[in-house]
Structure formats: structure tokens, C-alpha cells
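quick one before i forget lol
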Amino acid sequence: MNKKITTSVLSAIILLASCANASQGEYTPQYEEQVIELPGVSNARQLGGYIIGDKKIRMDLLLRSGNLAKASDEAVATLHDTYKLALVADFRSSMERGKAPDRDVEGATNVWLPVLEKIISRESATSDMVSLHSIKDNPSYTVSLLHRQDIQDALSATYDDIVFDEDCQQSYAAFLDSLVALPKDRAALWHCAHGKDRCGWGTAFILAALGADRSLIVDDFAMSNISYSQDIEVIAAAARAEGSEDELIEYIHLLRGVSVTFFEKTLDEIDARYGSIENFLEQELDLTVDEKRILRDKFLEDE
């Protein structure tokens, strides 16, 4: 399917949901309003403009994306000149970071905060998992792997691993600390490989710290499926050809985009264990009331 057509369809779905919510007085963010132009950087978006209660997130300060390894000269200049970037938080593993180091942005500190380091290192020794994540020109083979129970189990555990692994929690705690320490009016950018899963959870934590409700957190997370609509469709078409799209669709989303279903399951598990994501931030990511106030003072303004 043509990328433009696929993206338009997904955007239309979000627009329809927005209209429905608007009639009920609810706020739904729009993908087109969050995208930022950084040539060579995938899934680049910002949180600026999101409405949280009677506040909104200040523009051009909180940026999320894929890695910066192939960022163009124009993108690097934009991050420096337009966004006054002061911090890059890299959630990738040492292997990923070593193979594709970020381009430097003058004036910005690049901090390595690995998420899933142990799991990715373990998967690097498993040829099938490497193939699943790296081979994109053989969708039928990818579909055959997605039918395997061990592959499904590994994929479906991804979000729980990201959230509940102690090493991952330490990295996210350090990420929130870096935002607390960020100079006022300077931007931060955080990323993983493709700016969707590990980056998406980092975004969920900062949104929760700023007081966002669950619907906004989920909406932002789901936008990665628009960014990667073409990649999702290639695998979905191969699954559809053999009659297994419905069976595999969440695993396809986990692989090439994000799974909202599994994301919400992990949010539910956070609620079950801690009572709320706010309690999780306090108990596991060591975010204090004073630090939360600093973040809100720094990144929120009157609507």
C-alpha cells in the first residue's frame, strides 16, 4: 500500500476520534501538529501544545524521535539553532549505540541511559530474533517467525520488561532527573532506535509527571503507528495473504510500530501494582513532589 494512502487513512481515523471526543469536550492531540521536520531522523515529534487540564506543554522543548545517526546537516542545525538543544538521552543498548552512534549537536550533552541492555545483548546471540528485527525485505519469512510461540512470548513481554526491570527503571529515573536539571528554555530530545517503544515509555513517564491523563499518554504512544504505517502494512499484507492478519496484528505492531493493546495491559499492571502511574514514578523512579513541581513549572504554561 502506498505510504501516503496508509498514513492518510490512519490520520483520518485519529481525526474522526478527535471529532467524537471534541463533541464530548475532550482533548485529542493531532499527529500533524506534533511532527517536527528533522531530515534523516525517523518518528520525530514534540510534546509542545499538548493540553493538560488548564495548562499546555510549552512548544519546542520536549522532543522525541528515532536515533540521530543519520540526521542530516539540516537536522543537526535545526536542533541547535531552532530548538536550542541542551540534552540528548539515548535509550539504546551499547550494541545499537556502537553500530550507529548519534551525530553530535553542538551545545547538547549526549547521555547514554540504556533500556533493555541485558535483553538486547541476549537476543543478539539468537539468530531468529536478530532476523526478526533486521530483515525487512522478506515479509513472508517475518510472518513465519511471528507464528512461533517463543517469538510471540518474547515480543509480548517487551513492555513489561521495559517498565518493571530494575536496570530500565534506573535509566528512566536518570532521564527524569536530567529533565529536572535541564536549563530553562533549553530543549531535550530522547530516543531509542526508532523512537517508538523505549522512547514511547520515556514519553509516557514525563507526560504522567506533568499531570497528563491516560488518554493523552495512550494517544501519544499510538502516533508511532502513523510514522511507521508503511512498515506495518508490508508485514500485515503478507499476513493477510495467508489469512493470519487478525491473529498476528498486535505482534506486527510490536515489531514494526507499537501495540496499544499491550501498552494498555502494562499500564493496567502498573495500576494493579502501584495504584497509579504517579505512584510508580514516586516509588520506582524516585520522582519527588518537588521535582514534579519543577518539571511542571519548567514545561507547562497557561492554555
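fyi Residues 169 and 285 are 6 Å apart (CA to CA).
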